[in-house]
Design goal:
The chain is of the alpha/beta class. The chain contains 15 helices and 14 strands. It has helices at 22-32, 86-99, 135-138, 152-162, 174-183, 209-220, 241-254, 269-278, 293-302, 317-324, 355-367, 369-372, 375-378, 386-389, 391-401, and strands at 5-10, 38-46, 58-62, 65-74, 108-111, 127-131, 168-171, 191-193, 227-232, 258-263, 285-289, 305-308, 329-331, 347-349. Helix 6 (209-220) packs across helix 9, helix 7 packs parallel to helix 8 and helix 7 crosses helix 11. The chain is globular and about 65 Å long. The relative contact order is 0.12.
């Protein structure tokens, strides 16, 4: 597009794949709803090297907009860990792109992890950072899958000088915003809270819930009166699926006609399967793997409860999507969940992260599912539509594009 500003999104995302990641969903939304005067390219990853080979730019049209991906690394769509951390693999590939001048066309650089910004210390172009967690929490939480957990003090040494260099820092955790502003006066006017969002054209209550209800249960091979508890996301330490399995095993004793559905994949899938076998509920647990958004929405509309058992979060997109489908949520008290979940109104918030407490919430959520579902859920996410949330990001890019030089 000739009169648009070129912006590089620098993160190992594959917006054309079905990688179970909130950051990928966040980036996909920026691309999908971008106005015509801003042109975005993800310098990212491919989860399908055959369809999207390394080094070859991929362009697809969605909603009349061209979405661009330039893959520089490969990723496993199941989110399996590699011997060399993805951060290092990506930075190595990005350094090569930068030194060969392949990033010169971009007027603005956007990061979704802070480490790659180390490569651009002498770069005069505007740089922005979006932090999807409060890193004080994610680098120090018990059971965290963040590699910085082995040396959180080292992460602090990396972050401290880089944040003030950013033109704008968006955080999806208000606690991170408050902490940065309280501890570093150089960040005044730079750091701001931004929520996540859901796509109402995909995630909505639908017109034929009864049809979805029957079709999904038939697809899963369960009885028509089976209650479905569904969770969406990576099967990893952050999401704490082992807590969910243990709590579900307790609940299924009192509610024999229920099924747990896990959408997504990850490093803990084998452990979760073993835990289900250990607790005697294997036949009541279904792994659907990674799915396209339209299929996720269909399953959510047919479900009775959405479950989020995370150890830590920012503002989980999957939670907003489930509420947008009219589905009540049973959640741990993490991140920004209280912005949209009201205990006893459109879901349940576990008093703590013990198995007994979370199981009690799941059980009560199932018992009250019909009372909690519907408009109480959908109304809660109306402020989190993409055109509202993304306006601040787009306006920031326009401001930077107009800057002299």
């Amino acid at each position: 597009m000739t009169n648009s500003t070129n912006i590089a999104i620098l993160y190992w995302a594959d917006p054309f794949g079905y990688v179970p990641s909130g950051i990928d969903s966040f980036i996909r939304g920026i691309l999908k709803f971008a106005p015509p005067d801003l042109s975005y390219t993800v310098v990212g990853a491919t989860s399908d090297p055959v369809s999207r080979p390394l080094g070859k730019e991929v362009v697809k049209e969605v909603n009349g907009r061209e979405l661009r991906l330039r893959p520089v690394v490969t990723i496993d769509p199941s989110s399996s860990r590699t011997r060399i951390p993805m951060t290092l693999r990506y930075m190595h590939a990005l350094r090569r792109e930068y030194r060969q001048g392949r990033l010169d066309e971009f007027a603005i650089l956007d990061f979704h992890r802070i480490e790659p910004a180390l490569l651009f210390l002498r770069e005069p172009r505007p740089q922005n950072l979006t932090l999807h967690h409060d890193n004080l929490v994610s680098t120090r939480s018990a059971g965290s899958d963040n590699m910085w957990r082995f040396a959180p003090w080292l992460y602090d040494l990396v972050e401290r000088p880089l944040l003030p260099r950013m033109d704008r820092v968006f955080c999806v955790r208000q606690s991170a915003v408050d902490r940065y502003l309280a501890t570093d006066e150089r960040l005044a006017g730079k750091v701001m809270f931004t929520p996540t969002w859901m796509e109402p054209d995909v995630f909505n209550a639908g017109d034929d819930v009864e049809s979805d209800h029957a079709a999904v249960r038939q697809q899963l091979g369960v009885a028509s009166d089976t209650a479905l508890i569904t969770t969406v996301g990576r099967i990893d330490h952050q999401k704490d699926p082992l807590l969910l399995i243990s709590a579900f095993a307790k609940v299924s004793e009192q509610h024999p006609r229920c099924q747990l559905v896990l959408i997504g994949d990850g490093t803990l899938r084998a452990q979760v399967s073993d835990k289900a076998a250990e607790t005697g509920c294997s036949e009541k647990v279904t792994f659907m793997g990674s799915q396209p958004p339209e299929e996720i929405a269909r399953v959510l509309r047919a479900s009775d409860i959405f479950a989020l058992s995370s150890a830590y979060e920012g503002m989980p997109i999957a939670l907003l999507e489930s509420l947008a489908c009219g589905l009540p949520a049973v959640v741990t008290d993490v991140g920004e969940v209280r912005r949209v979940v009201e205990h006893g109104v459109n879901g349940m918030i576990s008093a703590d992260r013990s198995v007994d407490a979370y199981a009690a919430c799941l059980g009560e959520g199932l018992a009250r599912a019909e009372e909690l579902r519907g408009s109480k859920c959908t109304d809660a996410v109306v402020p989190y539509r993409p055109e509202r949330v993304l306006a601040a990001i787009y306006e920031n890019h326009r401001r930077q594009a107009q800057r002299p030089g």
